[in-house]
Amino acid sequence: MGKGRLKFRKSKNKFMNFVKPLIAKIMDNDVTGMAAQLAYFFLLSLFPLLIFMITLLPYTPLSQEDIFHLIKDFAPTETFTMIQKTINEIMSNRSGGLLSIGIIGTIWSASNGMNALMRSLNRAYDVTERRPFLLARGLAILMTIAMIFVFLVALLLPVFGKQIGLFIFSNLGLSHEFMKIWGILRWVLSPIILFLVFLAIYYLSPSLKIKCTTAIPGAIFASIGWVIVSLGFSFYVSYFGNYSSTYGNIGGIIILMLWFYISAIIIIVGGEINSLIGENKGECKI
């Protein structure tokens, strides 16, 4: 019993020795203020990002509704309705495909959020941007495009994964069992995709060399935390938060900004966790 208590105390002390410096870093780096800036850039980037994704749909077996379905899983109802309505209006007013200059402008606008996130993570590591402007912006654009393709693959996997699984399991006479398994895998798949996206962001964004393993804890925290917070916030807004009665027609935008703000806090804190772990292990090299 004494050994068990001693072990518990050591674990508790170890946890507190990590949490206290983490809270100090969060306060010193003004995470809430940075999250507010990041939420603003996320808002500016959202619709160009979605427009670019939808522009790529004719080259895939996906439809516009597939993208809306992915958003609907996590976004609050009012926010989802506003996003769907706005995108439908924008796409219905577009004449033909995107021109080359339109593609460049759309991608540049969509990368604003990633560029702001890179600056936030640099602050988490207490470093300034040392890369040339064009290199840093080019990296933000490449990461934005990569993120788009990752989410398109995430949308394709359920479609083709389900078809392949049904084909294999039906030959074994286990199609009913497969559907039960697939119902669980559908919810496991999204956090895994999110984890890979966050891992790439935390590894590539800071303007210093870090080990990929150092980026894993923050990626785990961000992917799990974002899913939990998004679902919890969606539930709260749907059943308790009546923003429309306070803000009227812009209630959907206010909810969207709050969602982005909370998401930004989760993402930046993930970066702070990685930074602290890297400092403790001496793995962060400028």
TrEMBL record:
Pfam families referenced in this protein's UniProt entry, alphabetically: Virul_fac_BrkB (PF03631)
Q: Main location per UniProt?
A: membrane
Keyword Nucleus part of the UniProt annotation? no
Query: Please, which domain of life does this record's source organism belong to?
Result: Bacteria
Q: Where in the cell is it found?
A: Cell membrane
Keyword Membrane appears in the UniProt entry: yes
Q: Which UniProt keywords apply?
A: Cell membrane, Membrane, Transmembrane, Transmembrane helix
Query: Membrane topology type, per the record?
Result: Multi-pass membrane protein
One Gene Ontology term, aspect cellular component: plasma membrane
Q: Which residues span the membrane? A: 38-59, 98-118, 139-161, 181-204, 216-238, 250-271
Q: Which PANTHER family match?
A: INNER MEMBRANE PROTEIN YHJD, UPF0761 MEMBRANE PROTEIN YIHY
Q: What is this protein called?
A: YihY/virulence factor BrkB family protein
Tell me what organism the protein belongs to.
Lederbergia citrea
